[in-house]
Design brief:
CATH topology of the largest domain: Trna Endonuclease, Chain: A, domain 1
Oligomer: single chain
CATH class of the largest domain: Alpha Beta
Strand content: 15-25%
Distance between the termini: 62 Å
Radius of gyration: 19 Å
Order of helices and strands: HEEEHEEEEEEHEH
Shape: globular
CATH architecture of the largest domain: 3-Layer(aba) Sandwich
Largest sheet: 4 strands, mixed
Number of strands: 10
Number of domains: 2
Structural class: alpha+beta
Number of helices: 4
Strand order of the largest sheet: 4-7-8-10
């Protein structure tokens, strides 16, 4: 029986969308991540710039929101690692004037990857009548969230 290529093995095991470079090394998304693209024309800038511009937009409209940082580290200097933040939650968590919960996950202007944890969180929030949007720029934020203001 002929030996399977790495590309065939990865496709069979279901490890996500993976492109194999000509020398056989995995390249791209793994572990169930999916690609994202803007739904409206957005400037191609880094995620940090998208975040900053969108935070200004939210603050100008006096919308209650807070940053959600996620990670782990030695917080108290004892050598023990602690997790902080809500895994898979959006970069911004807030509440609209109507009382509706929302989360915004920012990606760079041209698009990015949504992890499996983010996909699960999005399904959970939307399943409980909350809003969860992937945002690539202010024009997309205005279109998505503006409809609820």
């Amino acid at each position: 029986m002929k030996r399977k290529t790495k590309k065939e093995q990865l496709r069979i095991t279901g490890k996500g969308i993976i492109d194999i470079m000509h020398h056989g090394k995995p390249q791209g998304r793994v572990s169930g991540a999916i690609g994202t693209k803007p739904t409206v024309l957005c400037e191609n800038v880094l995620e940090a710039e998208v975040f900053k511009a969108c935070m200004q937009w939210l603050k100008a409209r006096r919308i209650l929101c807070d940053r959600n940082n996620v990670g782990s580290g030695d917080i108290d200097g004892t050598g023990r690692r602690f997790r902080y933040g809500i895994k898979g939650a959006g970069d911004i968590i807030g509440c609209l004037p109507s009382g509706k919960h929302f989360e915004l996950e920012f990606k760079r202007g041209k698009g990015g990857s949504q992890s499996l944890d983010q996909q699960k969180r999005m399904k959970k929030v939307r399943g409980n009548k909350g809003l969860y949007f992937i945002i690539h720029g202010v024009p997309e934020l205005e279109r998505q969230l503006g409809a609820y203001l």
